[in-house]
Each structure stands twice: as structure tokens, then as C-alpha cells.
Fold this protein.
Amino acid sequence: MMYLARSGSWLSLGHIVSVVTTLGLSIFFANFLPKETYGTYKYVLSIIGILTITTLPGVNTYLAQAVARGFEKTIYKALKLKITYGLLGAMLAFGGSFYYYYNDNHTLSLSLLIAGLFIPFMDSAGIYNVYLQSKKLFKASISYFSFNQIVTSLILILTIVLSDNLFIILLAYFGSWTFLRTITFIQALRKHPPSGEIDNNISSYGLHISVAGLLGIIALHIDSLLLFHHFGPAEVALYAFALAPVEQIRGMYKNISPLSLPKLAQRSCKEINKILAPRLFFLLLLGTSIAGIYIVLAPLFFQLLFPQYIEAVLFSQLLSGLIALSLPVAFFASIMQSKISSMPRSWFYWGTLQYAFLIISVIIFIPLYGIYGIIISKYIALFVGSHNKCMAMEAANIQ
């Protein structure tokens, strides 16, 4: 309980900073940008979000438990892997830029050209956060994160106020995040130098986890891509505002993994089994309560802050069920991550079944029902994912 209170307070502070800055940005986006411009901006970010799979996000997953086990110098190999493979993402972005230029869509062509320059570096430098949290240096982690979040948000707000030019906004977004994360990476490792050995398994496991997560990355962004294709950028903007408050609340669940992983990594499967059922029941009850409060307050929230997007209220309320169900699922994921080296590698791929269901569902339902189709698909995927995580834990002897 002392560990939770001490460490959790720092992570909660980081989430508060994230919520406040994101809310401030959303207000400026809603009031200073046309829906079409904002929708196109989100569309470009979705494309880049898919291309960042080449920076091997699975390396982050393995690095977390490697550092927790004392293999701190693994971070150097992790950075090299992410940048090297990230160059492929840059080339794909440039290829997409050429495709749109060839088809006379100069807006998307230049947008992808700008974004592609930053793909290998922006997310790669961010692994300082994984390193610090796995060392239980939550104060340092949140201090760096909060500073970067605030500065980047202020830069974007100033850019939006001065110009509604999409290209300038993209440069401000990618440029500020890449620069600040790079400086922070250098500073974090200088102040907290890694010790121990290098876990060379990170190359194999990081690649396997990343490939297994490919469908997950696509599933995370394909909804915006399909909405843009079938209904245009304004509908993408509407969906983005409907989903944003739900995702910010779910963002609180991200604290579960960094808090629990260092502890779970040191526990046996038998010890974890003893706490599993009561933890899941409590988390489901807590998530349901939070979702209920949000449903009641959502109309007032949108009316006060985003009156231009008041039609997004119903969509946001329908999505609120994810708030309740995702909390116990997040705890499942933390347990799996803590025992990732004990998992059969085949389960990395079986775990992608939920994303396959989501991708297939949105392909079918979005042309028919638009945003309602996305909502249906997300609940289907969450149910399938919960079932698969239970099976994976049984395979690791956590039952």
C-alpha cells in the first residue's frame, strides 16, 4: 500500500498533466481549426501511427521487464533496434507521399513527407520513460514527461492560434516531440546511468512481439482511415472528439502496468493466482462506477467545452462501456507482460485475434453504419481479447 501510494501519486500527477494539456489542445483545435482541417490532421496521424510499427514497439514491452530484472544496459540495444527498423517506416511514408503526389493530392503528399522525416526518431527516443518507470523512478519519469507534454502543447496551441495551415501544425507536432524526447533521453541516462548487463533476447522477443502487435497497431488507427475514405475528414473530426474523453479516462489505466510490473515480475505464478480474482472484481466495479459518472456528465461537458461537436455526445456515451471493461483487461495485460519471457511465443500471435476481429468488423460495419459501426466493432474486439488473455495466462500457468 505504501508503494502504491508513493508511486501511484506520481503517475496520477502525470495523468492529470496529460488530461489538462490534452483538454486545452482539444479546445483550441475545436475553436480555431475547421473540421475538415482537423479531420485531415487526425488522418495523417493515423497513417503515421501505423507506420511506427517499424520502430518495433514490442521492444518497449520486453525492455520494461528486462530493466526490472536488472538488465538496464539493454536500453542501448533497444534504441539502436528502434531507429534502425524505423528507417523502413520513413521510406514507406515517402512512398505514400509519392503516391499521393502522383494522384494530385498535394496536401496528403506533403503531409506524409514531413511526417516521414521524424518516424525513426520520435517514438524511439521516448523509451527513456520505459527505462525510468521500470527502475521505479516514477518521480523522474513523470517530471520529464510533464515538462515535455506542457511545452509541446504550448507550441501547438501557439501554432494553431497563429495559423490553420496543416503543414505548419504537423511540423510543430512532430518537430517539438522529437526534439524534446531526444534531449530528455540524453539527460535521463546521464543522470541515471544504466548498470548490469544487456539482455540480448530483446532482438528476438522485441521483433516477435512487434510483428504480433502489427494487427493491434492497424486496428488502433484503421477506424479513422476508413471513416476518412467513406465519409470525409469532418466525420473523422466528429469521431475523434467522441472518443477523446473516453480515451483520456482509460488513460488512467496506463498507471496499472508501470506500478504493478516491477512487483509482478518478482512474483511466482502461484503468488499471482492468489490475488487475481479479488483484483479483477474490484477493478470491474471501479470501472463501472467511473463509466456511469461519465455518461451523466458527458452532455454538460460537451456543451461547455465543445459546442461545435455537440452531436458527438451520444457516440461518446455509447463508447463509455469501454471505460468499465478495460480496467480489468489492463490488469490482465500487466500480468502477461510481467511473465512475457515465460509465454510460449505462439501466444503472441494468438493474442492478435481480437485485432483481426476488430479490423474485419470495421471494414464491414463502417460503410454501413459509420461511427456506430466502429462502436459495435470495439465491443466485439474487447470481448474476444479478454477471452484470449485468459487462455494465455493459463498457458503460463497462471490460472
In short: The two ends are 25 Å apart (CA to CA). The chain has a mean pLDDT of 85.
